[in-house]
From TrEMBL, chain A:
Pfam families: CTLH (PF10607), LisH (PF08513). It comes from Marasmius oreades. This is CTLH domain-containing protein. Signal peptide: none annotated. Residues 49-106 form the CTLH domain. SMART domains: CRA, CTLH, LisH. InterPro entries: CRA_dom, CTLH/CRA, CTLH_C, LisH, Ubq-SigPath_Reg.
Automatic annotation (TrEMBL), chain B:
Residues 1-29, 136-158, 218-231 have a biased composition (Low complexity). Residues 64-85 have a biased composition (Polar residues). InterPro entries: B30.2/SPRY (IPR001870), B30.2/SPRY_sf (IPR043136), ConA-like_dom_sf (IPR013320), CRA_dom (IPR013144), CTLH/CRA (IPR024964), CTLH_C (IPR006595), LisH (IPR006594), SPRY_dom (IPR003877). It comes from the Eukaryota. Residues 221-413 form the B30.2/SPRY domain. PANTHER family: RAN BINDING PROTEIN 9-RELATED. This is Ran-binding protein 10.
Length: 209, 777
């Protein structure tokens, strides 16, 4: 049982390293943790796909949207075609980057040309469009309203990068997100439900302090 | 025995949980949602797991007795009566029930005498108790209404329906109680009733059954069962399998297999014929099912089907159709309306009648019901079904000749419920994992960054601490470096918080699992907080080397290195760890000797090939313990060879014999010195370790024995010991003995179990074992 649990957890770690693109760490881990079939067919993982995913991700985290779009189309042009919401978020990110660089006129123009038509098509995206445009209004203001300033944060880039990563993984018929992340979500959900639905106050927990 | 502690800690429920007074936690979890007013303070308010007498009491009340009446009575009396003559009690003791028009039917000429005599016992509570347990004389009722039938248990036996395989708690859900249950518990199951019936039918005389309530069981056995512990992971949640004999309107004739209900009766007044009559199941539906489903076939012979199919709580009167009363829900065949505690229904689906198969589903993730008609889903209906109460499948009939046959999974369902459950399951799972982690989980100090960012950081820390804990040093280094480059890329962005969230286990745990800054030292210079300092890396390497030497059968190195670097680890608990290690060394010596002997035998029978298997050199997989056993088995599998060519066999075998002997005497000598050394140590755990260790001597080939010996000698035992040593070293350094990731997994498993048992149906569809660990996916 113990052996099998730690083997299972090893797999969870490996899954995380692969999904999140820690290629060399994954390779090292396969050796150290003695994953079966390291030399031959390494698990059922395409280590090379990690690399291209990571390049795209890095581009997004750099704020280089053009590069990211070019790379993802190289990898598989269908990914953007079949994910209108992802494509919108990439364009949104481009507007955000332009605003960040102070290229307001360009940002405005781009938003009008690319974002607005899509926002009209999809009410869900419209509210995000509005939020993005609000950035222009508060551009010189330090105290931005809630939810607006976030767009300029590293978190927003991570979010876009995560969505992109998930879409690529899905196109490769792999899980969308790391199982470890799911586990964290289930745990937090479980804690919340125990408190809210079962009215349990004292939930023994692992908490972020 | 040496490995027991770590073994038990491997159960997916953290040991720490047990030290956080699980009973308190669990009880509070369980009792809150089920502490309905009607049940307030029963002897053992065990929520859904009401047993024995408690069960009977609540059920009795559910059968229509008013609560106040019941409480004023002695519980013993009401219990016994409810089992003895449910419908009669109502008519006799509860004035409210008198206006229910079934009374004349019950008190029939042939049975009235017996009914009376059955009622004598209430003057003597102790006597009355007896029939409630073993033999109950309600045969009077049956004989008045049905032709005598012999109940046989197997008729209700069926496998757990396939659609329930989608529940994470499937292993807890059972259609039949396991036969290993103690007798006291059995009293709550159908079999005793059945037994009572068959025995009474065999006598054929009502006088008999009432004159001889055999006093062979005493009440204490039942009350003992009422105090059974609350929940554990091996709790059995029983599924409905049949309509209840007790909790049905007496006018409904129940078939012997408990599936078919017929509204019977001939003649009588018109008013009598119009009386509603309901039945419910013996067991309530465990919300841990996630979704529960059953089907009813309308077999009415009557002109119109005024039939209600649905659910009811335990306290709903049996003289009303499901849906009319509070805590009951029903879909009515005559008008196709849905009823939820209302007189006038709401338009819901088509009408139904003879020949139709009506499916009735309960989705505990949404607390909504749904119905199917002849395999077509009619959509969700009702809100908050069964919230806070035990929910039973229930049907109601209203006209003579009406008849329904239920399918709780006895046979394939008309509707493709399995596919439906699969869809709902996927949706419930998606709803849990597709939302970002609730920001309240993270510390307040980090509210500057998005949940995605904090999630990533938390996960990175989890991964790194795990790698460090288990000594995957190289991976940890590479990972750390990669994580930093990834995050330093976005230097242009302003808001990378420098303070990192720290994972820590709160609550009283037996070991403070604080990931904090132990394995992962935080550094303000790092954006990720992922830094393993050189000193730390060396420490991890050292610890890993020691632990691995146990796996590699080099116990001496393990002991010496530990003694040199972590002396306190071996000194803890008066040297218990050292005892375990040295006993392992003894076993390793024995194994070497055994292996030599075996290969000697093989080489003799093989005809000379000196086939000494490289015991020390055999492939070490670390993770796959099968290797050892397999090689041993395949070695054995060689039958006496047919090769006779014996060229140099005798010479090599004689030298092998000598080596074999030497190995054995070395082992024995070590064992003796070990025994001498620890003879004075009378601690029971030490004695137990020794007993187990020395029992290995008795076997020529310990690896081939299996069972408990294999547990002591096998490679898995090595893994456990290595892990124990790892924990001992970590503990001696004041570090957590389990990586936070492992704790996280175990806590999550416990949360889900508790949620599932508390009625949060979605927990049944969060199957972390299947979703996250199984490699098949």
């Amino acid at each position: 049982m113990l052996i099998s649990l730690s083997r299972d957890l090893n797999r969870l770690i490996m899954d995380y390293l692969i999904i999140e693109g820690y290629k060399s760490a994954a390779e090292e881990f396969a050796k150290e943790a003695k994953f079966p079939g390291v030399s031959g067919k390494p698990l059922d993982v395409d280590f090379d796909s990690i690399e291209s995913r990571m390049n795209i991700r890095e581009a997004l985290q750099r704020g280089d949207i053009d590069d990211a779009i070019r790379r993802v189309n190289e990898l598989n042009p269908e990914i953007l075609d079949t994910n209108p919401s992802l494509y919108f978020h990439l364009q949104q990110q481009r507007v955000i980057e332009l605003i960040r660089q102070g290229r307001i006129i360009e940002a405005l123009q781009f938003a009008q040309e690319e974002l607005a038509p899509r926002g009209e098509e999809n009410p869900e995206l419209l509210s995000e469009l509005e939020k993005t445009m609000a950035l222009l209004a508060f551009e010189r203001c330090d105290a931005k309203p809630n939810g607006i300033g976030e767009l300029l944060s590293a978190g927003q880039r991570l979010k876009t990068a995560g969505e992109m990563n998930g879409a690529i993984l899905e196109s490769l018929s792999q899980g969308k997100e790391a199982k470890l992340e799911s586990l964290l979500k289930v745990m937090v959900w479980g804690q919340k439900m125990l408190r809210e639905e079962v009215n349990l106050e004292d939930v023994p927990s692992i908490n972020a302090v | 025995m040496a490995n027991r502690p770590s073994r038990s800690s491997s159960i997916p429920i953290p040991r720490s949980n047990s030290s956080t007074s699980p009973s308190r936690n669990i009880e509070s979890i369980i009792s809150i949602p089920f502490a309905t007013p009607a049940r307030s303070r029963l002897p053992s308010d065990q929520g859904p797991f009401v047993r024995g007498t408690t069960h009977a009491e609540s059920d009795h009340r559910g059968a229509g007795t008013s609560t106040s009446t019941n409480q004023s009575n002695s519980p013993l009396r009401s219990t016994a009566r409810s089992f003895t003559q449910p419908p009669l009690i109502h008519t006799r003791t509860i004035p409210r029930m008198i206006n229910v028009p079934f009374e004349p039917r019950v008190v029939r000429a042939e049975s009235s005498r017996n009914l009376d005599s059955t009622f004598q016992p209430p003057t003597s509570p102790t006597r009355l108790r007896k029939p409630s347990i073993g033999v109950r004389p309600p045969s009077t009722q049956r004989t008045t209404q049905e032709t005598p039938q012999t109940f046989t248990t197997p008729s209700t036996t069926f496998e757990r329906p396939d659609y329930l395989e989608h529940s994470a708690f499937r292993h807890l859900l059972q259609t039949e109680a396991p036969s290993s249950l103690p007798p006291a518990r059995k009293s709550e199951h159908p079999p005793p009733n059945i037994h009572a019936y068959s025995s009474s039918t065999s006598t054929g005389s009502d006088d008999d059954s009432n004159a001889s309530p055999p006093p062979r069981e005493i009440p204490s056995s039942t009350s003992a069962s009422a105090s059974t512990p609350v929940i554990s992971s091996d709790q059995v949640l029983k599924l409905p399998t049949r309509w209840s004999v007790q909790f049905r309107h007496h006018i409904l004739n129940l078939s012997e297999d408990g599936r078919e209900l017929t509204y019977q009766g001939t003649g009588g007044s018109d008013r009598d014929r119009e009386a509603a009559a309901a039945a419910r199941t013996v067991q309530h539906i465990p919300p841990a099912c996630g979704i529960y489903y059953y089907e009813v076939e309308i077999r009415s012979k009557g002109q119109k089907a005024h039939i209600s199919v649905g659910f009811a709580g335990s306290d709903v009167r049996m003289s009303r159709l499901p849906g009319w009363e509070p805590n009951s829900w029903g879909y009515h065949g005559d008008d196709g309306c849905s009823f939820a505690a209302e007189k006038n229904g709401t338009k819901y689906g088509p009408t139904f009648g003879v020949g139709d198969i009506i499916g009735c589903g309960m989705d505990f993730t949404t607390n909504q019901a749904f119905y199917t008609k002849n395999g077509v889903n009619l959509g969700p209906v009702f809100e908050n079904v069964g919230k806070g109460i035990d929910l039973y499948p229930s049907v109601g009939l209203q006209h003579v000749g009406e008849s329904v046959k239920v399918n709780f999974g006895h046979e394939p369902f008309k509707y493709d419920i399995e596919y439906y459950v699969q869809q709902q399951r996927n949706q419930a799972w998606a709803e849990i994992i597709e939302r970002p982690v609730d920001t309240s989980f993270f510390s307040a100090g980090n509210n500057g960054s998005a949940p995605e960012e904090q999630t990533k950081r938390t996960l990175n820390r989890l991964v790194l601490s795990y790698l460090a804990h288990h000594g995957y040093v190289k991976t940890a280094r590479v990972f750390q470096k990669q994580a930093e480059t990834l995050n330093t890329v976005n230097t242009a962005t302003p808001s990378v918080a420098s303070s990192t969230p720290t994972l820590a286990v709160t609550g009283t745990t037996d070991h403070d699992v604080e990931m904090a800054d132990t394995a992962v030292s935080s550094s303000s210079s790092s954006t990720t907080g992922l830094v393993i300092q050189n000193l730390e890396a060396a420490e991890i390497e050292l610890r890993t080397r020691i632990v691995n030497s146990v796996l590699e059968k080099d116990i001496d190195s393990a002991v010496n290195e530990t003694e040199r670097c972590y002396p306190t680890a071996l000194e803890a608990e008066e040297g218990l760890m050292k005892v375990k290690l040295r006993c392992r060394k003894f076993i390793e010596l024995l194994l070497i000797a055994a292996e030599m002997k075996k290969s000697l035998n093989t080489s003799i029978s093989m005809g000379g090939e000196d086939h000494t298997p490289s015991y020390d050199g055999e492939e070490e997989d670390g993770m796959s313990m099968q290797v050892d056993d397999d090689s041993a088995v395949s070695m054995n599998g060689f039958g006496p060879g047919s090769l006779v060519g014996d060229r140099h066999g005798s010479r090599s075998s004689s030298s092998a014999q000598a080596r074999c002997k030497a190995a054995l005497s070395e082992a024995i000598a070590y064992g003796q010195s070990l025994e001498n050394e620890y003879r004075s140590d009378k601690r029971p755990e030490v004695q137990a370790i020794f007993k187990k260790t020395f029992s290995v001597v008795a076997y020529e080939d310990p690896l081939a024995v299996g069972g408990s010996i294999a547990e002591v000698v096998g490679h898995e035992a090595r893994g456990l010991l290595a892990n124990e040593l790892n924990q001992a070293i970590l503990k001696s350094q004041g570090k957590p003995t389990h990586p936070p990731l492992e704790m996280m997994y175990r806590y999550t498993a416990v949360y889900l179990l508790q949620l599932g048992l508390s009625g949060v149906g979605a927990a049944a569809f969060a199957d972390i074992q299947k979703e996250l660990l199984d490699s098949e996916s």
